[in-house]
Amino acid sequence: MHIVVCAKQVPNTTQVRINPETNTLVRDGVESILNPFDENALEMALQLKEKHPGTKITVLTMGPPQAAEILKEAVGRGADAVVLLCDRAFAGSDTWATSYALSIAIGKLEKPDLVLFGKQAIDGDTAQVGPGVADWLGIPCIAYARKVEIADGQATVERTYEDGYEKLEVALPCALTVVKEANVPRMASLRGKMAAKKLNIVPLTAEASGADPAHLGLNASPTRVVKIFSPPPKTGGVKWQGEDPAAMAQKLVDLLRERKLV
Amino acid sequence: MAELNYGLSELALEIRGMVREFAESRVKPVRAELDETGHFPTDILRELGKMDLMGLYIPVEYGGTFEGDSMPNLIAVEELSRICIGVSVSYAASGLGADPILIGGSAEQKKKFLAPLASGEKWAAYALTEPNAGSDAGSIRTTAVKKGDKYVLNGTKQWITNGGEADIYTVFAVTDKNRGARGVSCFIVEKGTPGFTFGKKENKLGIRASATRELIFEDCEVPAANLIGREGTGFIWAMKTFDVSRPGIAAQAVGLAQGALDEAVMYAKVREQFGKPIIANQGLSWMLADMATKVETARALTYAVVKSIDAGVKDISKFSAMCKVYASDIAMQVTTDAVQVFGGYGYMKEYPVEKMMRDAKILQIYEGTNQIQRDIIGMALNKEYAAVAKP
Lengths: 262, 391
Description:
The complex is a heterodimer. Chain A has helices at 36-51, 68-77, 95-107, 129-137, 190-198, 206-209, 245-258, and strands at residues 2-7, 9-11, 18-19, 24-25, 32-34, 56-62, 81-85, 114-118, 141-151, 154-161, 164-171, 174-178. Chain A is an alpha/beta fold. Chain A has one domain (2-220): Rossmann fold (3-Layer(aba) Sandwich), CATH 3.40.50.620. In chain A, the strands form three sheets. In chain A, strands 7-6-1-8-12-9-10-11 form an eight-stranded mixed beta sheet. In chain A, strands 2-5 form a two-stranded antiparallel sheet. A two-stranded antiparallel sheet of chain A has the order 3-4. The longest helix of chain A has 16 residues, at 36-51. By secondary structure, chain B is of the alpha+beta class. Chain B folds into three domains: 10-123, Butyryl-Coa Dehydrogenase, subunit A, domain 1 (Orthogonal Bundle), CATH 1.10.540.10; 125-234, Butyryl-CoA Dehydrogenase, subunit A, domain 2; 236-384, Butyryl-CoA Dehydrogenase, subunit A, domain 3 (Up-down Bundle). Helices cover 51% and strands 15% of the residues of chain B. Chain B has helices at residues 10-27, 31-37, 42-50, 71-83, 85-104, 107-118, 234-270, 282-310, 317-342, 353-363, 370-386, and strands at 124-127, 143-147, 150-161, 168-174, 184-190, 196-201, 212-223, 227-228, 272-273, 276-277. Chain B has a four-stranded mixed beta sheet. A four-stranded antiparallel beta sheet of chain B has the order 2-3-7-6, with helices on one face. In chain B, helix 7 (234-270) runs parallel beside helix 9 (317-342), helix 8 packs antiparallel against helix 9 (317-342) and helix 9 (317-342) packs antiparallel against helix 11 (370-386). Chain B is globular and about 80 Å long. Classes of the chains: A alpha/beta, B alpha+beta. The A-B interface holds A 186-193 and B 14-15, 18, 21-22, 25-26, 47, 50-53, 65.
């Protein structure tokens, strides 16, 4: 089985700040990490590999040269091969252009049985790239997967909802976007880290990928980020405490009635 | 943080980073629970195995990563100990159990028993102590009688770390009761061997995550091929094991004391009384200074001993005893002082330092009490100075 895991390098969540002047992310001095949900996708692939010996895992990312770091991290954990899609031509891609570029890169690989994504990246939070790539590849996609079992050329997948889950069967190849509850990502092994150190990652350029230049980068992106802002914290409101619960409930009902809300 | 240059290899530094991150993210969140429940840290050891960290002391040809540098293993023990020595003793005791095989085992024994330890698939345990043979290890009563191509073991081992959890046991038994310590032999016994069972799990003051059990042998037949070396060499393997394992106890002590120092300094910086952080009081900051100095001294001595072992320095027993006795004594002092720095909070289980203080005590007791260590040092001095002393 061949599993492709698409991953993204993102700024560490706990440190994200937005420059109020320019409405852009402040990246200076912020550590870059492997997108946490992509860690779950990679872990899902690694667990499948443990269950199905002979499985090969390829991790693909699109990003600047330093995004090679997350590929090394992936190799440290047990990925077999990596692809770094890296070219100025990809700069400024929105989710449409990104999913196109990733699908082209996947098309150059040995045909995958499974393409895994984190449910979303913690910087953009769109959750669109996974389904987008699946669409370009013409394969089914199940989002928010927390569990997968592979047998007889099909996957049995549990898709999470806020109030439960649904069990689906889907023919391979297919794409899944993976939620945090799926697993606890492992840490890199010593031998994996040593292998990663020796790794020489040659970027796959736009030209070499064979992608249509008209579909790449900022100019090919149909969406634009007009403004990024931190929503203002909610203010006002009243807080009642310390009273008899029944009395407080009565008070609330009276208030709602008074404002003609019930 | 400022640190001394101990000339650590790239591998040792890599291991330090990996185990530090592992201990912080995987052990710290569960250490209080493990202490409270006394549950064995199975998942933690399994994960360490997957990370290739269970075979740091096992030579490459037997599936480990050891190539002559003992520091990576020592540092792994130190870093785990900084967070929890209940976990680190379970980790290190597997190495202790493997040591007699490493030191005295044949190539076949090494191949068969070390590979599954290196991969983390199995764990080992070292079984010497008996109800009536503690410090006087030469007086063990478990017997092994040869019968064809087997040895039949009878007797009880006490307080065996990893007992019941490990798969491979190095067990010391008497093969010739007329020869005292020279009549002791060492056997490799696998869990599941008929006649080999476990007693109750002990309820301990500290290192509560670790499993301490009795091993019971009732007409337990062990293949003669599992005898390490020749009959009567067991006590040599036992003592040689201690020469190389005692720095491991010192590493536990250094790690534990460092962990307590970390907690104490951080607390002293944020705890305010009389309108200022308590670290601003000279009396308290001097206390912290003494704690830090003790930790670094113990570390320097321990690393020096391990590097000397790797370099093949002769008559190492004295120095192994020194680092064990010194580091464990300062660990007891530093953890006790850490509780003092925390005051009333330190006495409460919501804070980690009371556990550290409880845990520290075992370091002065196991792997040879600190009185035995001082005996070893004293006897070595007596012997060394015999040549130069004029009556």
